[in-house]
Write a structure and sequence with these properties.
Strand order of the largest sheet of chain B: 1-2
Largest sheet of chain B: 2 strands, antiparallel
Low-confidence stretches of chain B: none
Structural class of chain B: mainly alpha
Mean pLDDT of chain B: 91
Radius of gyration of chain B: 21 Å
Keywords (chain B): Membrane, Transmembrane, Transmembrane helix
Number of strands of chain B: 2
Strand content of chain A: under 5%
Number of helices of chain A: 11
Number of helices of chain B: 5
Helix content of chain B: over 70%
Order of helices and strands of chain A: HHHHHHHHHHH
Oligomer: heterodimer
Low-confidence stretches of chain A: none
Strand content of chain B: under 5%
Order of helices and strands of chain B: HHHEEHH
Protein name (chain B): AzlD domain-containing protein
Structural class of chain A: mainly alpha
Distance between the termini of chain A: 63 Å
Mean pLDDT of chain A: 87
Number of domains of chain B: 2
Chain lengths: 252, 111
């Protein structure tokens, strides 16, 4: 054996990290902003560091900061976090088929690291066959580790910078994430049910954007899934009908 | 905020966040997804990612911004067209980001 197992793992982890690069870049301003916001609210640096290291949930951490600032009760903070992160249940449901053969310890880490970016980076790789059940979790861990590292380092840097880095949030680095997500969505659009899915999720997300705590995002996502599913079922039915008509014509 | 509150917040947030992400993984070897659920789940990436970015693209300060002075809209449209046309993820990201920053710069000059 010229390539021992751990070399293999490193190679696959690197693939995951590389695939996540644009989103890691896009996440940097958020991490810095989180750290600096936490310290500007007068929270202990250890509190902010612990939240990024232990909770590891981008948007929910910002929501929690906002709630702490208005002295919301703890149960409100926790239940809001639950709602904000509920979309990850959809990711998990979609990933079940790719993790069920893995040892529980690996699933544990993968569950901890199931954030938007890692799901977005790795899930399509299963679809196109560039990872399989032997390599997928290694690529996933590479994405998770690089994202986790970025998130915690930028949190600390944000705290150290003490105050908001002037204008950093105005630079628009977050657009890297938007462009990445577009790059992930567009290959699906070869099939028309995905157009129905995208359009209904997009329109709903704007109509529902006034709802608090990412609820609009969650409901819009569910509407998109249902719309795509119904379009898929409808198109299959009409194809089957067309086929059966053809065979009837041939038999006649 | 005292230490106990801090610990309770972190622990509480961890439990619900990790719980949501892990509960299905923990039972993955036993979970049998009905066929229709599996068929619906393949729409999750497009649905969730779209719902995350569309408000970022089209809205500013809770208002729709469909004007050409919105660099997010310009960058997103260009990225979308490139994505549909070439189906190449890195190219989509690169062109989208470059156009976004150029548009942002031009708009800042004209204001």
């Amino acid at each position: 054996m010229k390539t021992p197992g751990h070399m293999n793992i490193r190679k696959h982890m690197q693939r995951g990290a590389v695939a996540s690069m644009p989103m890691i870049l896009g996440g940097i301003p958020f991490g810095l902003l989180f750290g600096s916001l936490a310290s500007s609210y007068g929270l202990s640096p250890w509190f902010a560091i612990a939240m990024s290291a232990i909770v590891f949930a981008g948007s929910a951490q910002f929501v929690a900061l906002g709630l702490i600032a208005i002295h919301a009760p703890i149960w409100v903070i926790v239940s809001t976090t639950f709602i904000v992160n509920l979309r990850h249940l959809l990711y998990a449901a979609d990933m079940v088929k790719y993790v069920k053969h893995l040892p529980m310890s690996v699933r544990f880490i993968m569950g901890f690291g199931l954030v938007d970016e890692t799901y977005a980076a790795v899930r399509p790789m299963y679809e196109i066959g560039s990872v399989d059940e032997k390599t997928g979790h290694k690529v996933y861990l590479g994405s998770f580790c690089s994202f986790y590292l970025m998130w915690n380092v930028t949190t600390i840097l944000g705290i150290l910078s003490g105050e908001l880095i002037p204008g950093m949030s105005e630079w628009g680095l977050e657009f890297a994430m938007v462009a990445t997500f577009i790059g992930i969505i567009t290959p699906y659009l070869k099939h028309s049910p995905f157009w129905f899915c995208m359009l209904s999720a997009g329109v709903s997300s704007i109509i529902l954007s006034g709802l608090p705590n990412n609820l609009g995002l969650l409901v819009a996502a569910v509407i998109g899934v249902i719309a795509g599913y119904l379009a898929d079922v409808y198109m299959n039915l009409s194809n089957q009908l067309a086929d059966s008509h053809q065979s009837i014509d041939k038999n006649a | 905020m005292n230490v106990l509150d801090s610990v309770l917040i972190i622990v509480g947030m961890f439990v619900v966040t990790f719980g949501v992400r892990f509960v299905l993984f923990a039972r993955a070897h036993k979970v049998v997804m009905p066929v229709f659920v599996e068929r619906a789940l393949k729409f999750v990436p497009v649905a969730v990612l779209t719902a995350i970015i569309v408000p970022m693209i089209f809205m500013k300060d809770n208002q729709m911004n469909l004007s050409l002075s919105n660099p997010w809209l310009i960058g997103a449209i260009v990225a979308f067209v490139v994505g549909i046309w070439r189906q190449h993820q890195l190219l989509t990201i690169f062109v989208g980001v470059v156009v976004f920053f150029i548009a942002k710069y031009m708009i800042s000059l004209s204001v």
